[in-house]
Every structure is written in structure tokens, then in C-alpha cells.
TrEMBL record:
Annotated protein name in UniProt: Protein-lysine N-methyltransferase EFM4
Organism: Ustilaginoidea virens
SUPFAM superfamilies: S-adenosyl-L-methionine-dependent methyltransferases (SSF53335)
Enzymatic class: transferase
Pfam families, per the entry: Methyltransf_31 (PF13847)
Length: 260
């Protein structure tokens, strides 16, 4: 699972192999985006989650935004993991990158995935919301099921020791990305003249243990394009298809990559 030599461009009408453009289109302007996520260029994630913290405090049933909910992405990701060989639900460790309100880990707990589960997000308000929602859902652990964990951590710059600890010091069985890579691709920030999205795979790789899997869900990249970002070894999840310009695609792409 290594980064490609030349990153793909998010082309939807064509799948031309050409250098990454100077401006990556926002998911909100893409024909493949079922919902318009707030761009970090125009909206503060902390502001969003501060509002959702307040909303949840007033109404515990309002857990906030669930990304790709219109495509039932979380349920499909859970079902995909259920059918993946070598992943026991009782013990598989799970790291959710860009956890938001923690809804993905809540869905896995509801599906009897009872191993250690950690949600990481660079927004402190997101982490506070995830903890608040988990507490309201009474998912504090019990018996052999450890409590859900949530930590503030920046995938692109945070120290690995913050998320690689204990039994997961050498990596996690499952690393989840539901829209986080999309958000990273929106950033114009560069490190040593390279876009963050070009460095993403190299940052994620150490988080996955040998034999573990990375499950990526995107609304802004086709399966072929995701495959070029992360060398594919695994399967995909089916979503409703559409046709545009003679090319058949999906509104959402989810692919599984295994670390050898």
C-alpha cells in the first residue's frame, strides 16, 4: 500500500491520467457529491462542532452531521467488514481517522464490534462531541468491551505515539477513513512543496498493522482514482451508479486496501 508515483486527478467525465491540478475541485461542486461537506477553506470545523455540541446538549437525539448518510455508507462499511476474513469482531482493533461525532464507531459497536476502538480528529470540538454522544448512548464499555476512545490528533502532523500505543503500538487491525482523505485533498497547504494529499498515504501506512486493512470512503474520487492513490488489495462496496459523459460511476466509492 504505497503512494503512486504520479497522483491522479479527480476527473469524473473522463479518467485521464495527468498531473494533479493546481486547484482540486471541492466535493460540494462535484457531480459525484451526494452532500456538500463544509470546506475547510470557508468553514471552521471547530465552529461546526461547537454548534453541534450545543444542539446535542439540547437534544440528545441530535448527534449532528453523519457524512455520506444519504448513501447509507456507514451501514455498508460495517457489512463489508463483517464479511472480511480474518477480522474477529470481538477483538479486532479499529482506528477511525477524522471521527467527527463518532458515528462510525457507534455503528460498529451496534454491530457487535467489541474490540478496542479509537476515534481521532484534529478538531477538539469534534472530540468533545464524540465523547458526549458516546456517553449519551451509554457506550462506556462494560464486561470485555472497552469504552470507545476519542483523541485530538492531526493525521498530517500529529506524533504517532498519540495513536500507536499499548497493544496497537505496531498498528491497528482496521483503519477507517470516511471522507477524511477528501477533506485533506481540499487543503492548499504544502509541506516541502508537496500537497498534503500527496503525503497522505505515507502518513497513514504506519497506522495499519501488517495484515491489517485501510477502508477508505470518498465522494470525490472514483474507484480507479482511489486505487492509484493507494495500491489496491481488497474489495469494494457497491453504491448506486450513475452515467455521465458515457462513463459509468458511483456517487460514493469505498475501497479496502490491505497492508502486506
Amino acid at each position: 500500500m504505497t503512494a503512486p508515483a504520479s497522483p491522479p486527478t479527480p476527473s469524473h467525465a473522463q479518467r485521464a491520467h495527468q498531473p494533479l491540478p493546481d486547484t482540486i475541485p471541492k466535493p460540494s461542486s462535484s457531480i459525484r457529491s451526494p452532500i456538500p461537506p463544509p470546506s475547510p477553506l470557508t468553514c471552521s470545523w471547530n465552529k461546526l462542532y461547537t454548534r453541534e455540541l450545543s444542539n446535542h446538549a439540547s437534544d440528545p437525539h441530535d448527534i449532528g452531521t453523519v457524512w455520506f448518510d444519504d448513501s447509507d455508507a456507514e451501514a455498508k462499511m460495517v457489512r463489508f467488514l463483517d464479511g472480511l476474513a480474518g477480522l474477529p469482531r470481538s477483538s479486532a482493533s479499529i482506528l477511525d481517522l477524522g471521527c467527527g461525532n463518532g458515528s462510525m464507531l457507534l455503528a460498529l459497536r451496534a454491530g457487535d464490534w467489541t474490540g478496542r476502538a479509537l476515534g481521532a480528529d484534529y478538531s477538539p470540538q469534534s472530540v468533545a462531541l464524540a465523547r458526549q454522544v458516546a456517553a449519551a448512548e451509554a457506550l462506556g464499555g462494560g464486561g470485555d468491551c472497552p469504552p470507545l476512545e476519542f483523541r485530538e490528533w492531526d493525521i498530517m502532523s500529529g506524533p504517532y505515539a498519540a495513536v500507536l500505543d499499548g497493544a496497537q503500538e505496531s498498528g491497528w487491525d482496521v483503519v477507517l477513513d470516511k471522507g477524511t482523505f477528501d477533506a485533506v485533498c481540499l487543503s492548499g497547504e504544502k509541506i516541502q512543496d508537496r500537497r498534503l494529499c500527496e503525503l497522505y498515504c505515507a502518513r497513514v501506512l504506519p497506522l495499519v498493522k501488517k495484515g491489517g486493512v485501510l477502508l477508505v470512503t470518498s465522494c470525490n474520487w472514483t474507484e480507479d482514482e482511489l486505487t492509484r492513490w493507494f495500491q489496491r488489495e481488497g474489495g469494494g462496496v457497491d453504491y448506486p451508479s450513475f452515467s455521465f459523459g458515457g462513463v459509468k460511476g458511483q456517487t460514493i466509492s469505498t475501497l479496502c486496501f490491505r497492508k502486506e
